[in-house]
Amino acid sequence: MKKLLLLSALLIFACSSDDSNHDIPNPNNSSAIKIMPLGASRVEGGRPNYESYRYYLWKNLKDNNFVFDFIGTQSDEATYPSFNGEDFDDDHEGRGGWTSGDILDGLGDWLAQLETPDVVLISSPGGNDGLESLSFSQAVSNINFIIDILQENNPSVTIIIEQMAPARSDIMTIELTNFFYQMQQEVLNISTNKSTASSNVIPINMYTGFTDNLLADDVHYNIDGAKFIAERYLELFLNELN
User: Fold this and answer.
1) Tens of pLDDT along 178-220?
2) Cα distance between residue 231 and residue 58, in whole Å
3) Contact partners, residue 8, CB within 8 Å, separation at least 6
4) Which residue in 98, 119, 133, 216 has its CB near the most CB atoms, within 10 A?
5) Which residues contact 153 (CB under 8 A, 6 or more apart)?
6) How far is CA 89 from CA 26, 40, 113, 164, 216, in A?
7) Of 229, 224, 205, which Cα lies nearest the Cα of 214?
């Protein structure tokens, strides 16, 4: 188990499952950690038709006394119940239908409008590329460049990148299934290759245990699916706490 300082404002977190240095914001730190949820429709959400994980993660982190601020140039038109007297922090960087290339093209402009993120949650990387039968190798290249931009913006950023949850089983063609499993492995490669001494890129498994009954349609989460994803994020935060 290794320990590595991420930011001077954060306490140390350690990984218990491998030799990687994984650093996550300390819930007892008085300085709010800037968290950017980044991706497409699974980040954006579309109430009442389907859910984003963000609301449930926000509640989970609040319930565990994390001090944080979701950031992004986007906000929701949907309404959410308050929690412990607080209104949902609905800032995010999710855009329905956007591919890895779309996100890559827009990211620099979005970052220029925001406070510097400490943590970025990359949702379903390359998911829309796969759905649109776009090039796998180009999607991988785009994801690497997205991480480059984030690390240039903040050399100490922590990036959590999903091994994405699958689409509904009846639309998982051979081609889409191959794309899906290749990307799961590639996320591990990216995490290893793009981590630096000051910026950890951490994979998070969202596919094990994810079933069709967690989806509202072909690809989007229902409430149970959104809670499943939010719980996985919370587990990663809490299990890294030293």
Assistant:
1) 999 999 999 999 999 999 999 999 999 999 999 999 999 999 9
2) 11
3) none
4) 119
5) 111, 116, 117
6) 19, 18, 17, 24, 23
7) 224
For tokens 């929690």, name the residue: 83
pLDDT of residue 240: 66
Q: What is the pLDDT of residues 154-172, one digit of tens each?
A: 999 999 999 999 999 999 9
Residue 45 confidence (pLDDT) above 90 = yes
Q: What is the CA radius of gyration of the chain?
A: 17
Tokens 């240095």 appear where?
A: 21
Angstrom distance (rounded) from CA 132 to CA 119: 29
Q: Specify the CATH number for 33-239; select among 3.30.420.40, 3.40.710.10, 1.20.1560.10, 3.40.50.1110.
A: 3.40.50.1110
Average pLDDT taken over every residue of the chain = 89
Instruction: Return the number of other C-beta atoms located less than 10 Å from residue 223's C-beta.
Output: 14
According to DSSP, the residues that pair with 215 across neighbouring strands are: 221
Global confidence as pTM: 0.88
Model confidence at 8: pLDDT above 90: no
The DSSP letter of residue 163 is E
Sequence-distant (6+) residues with CB within 8 A of 35 are 25, 68, 69, 70, 71, 117, 118, 119, 120, 121
Contact 106, 146 (CB under 8 A): no
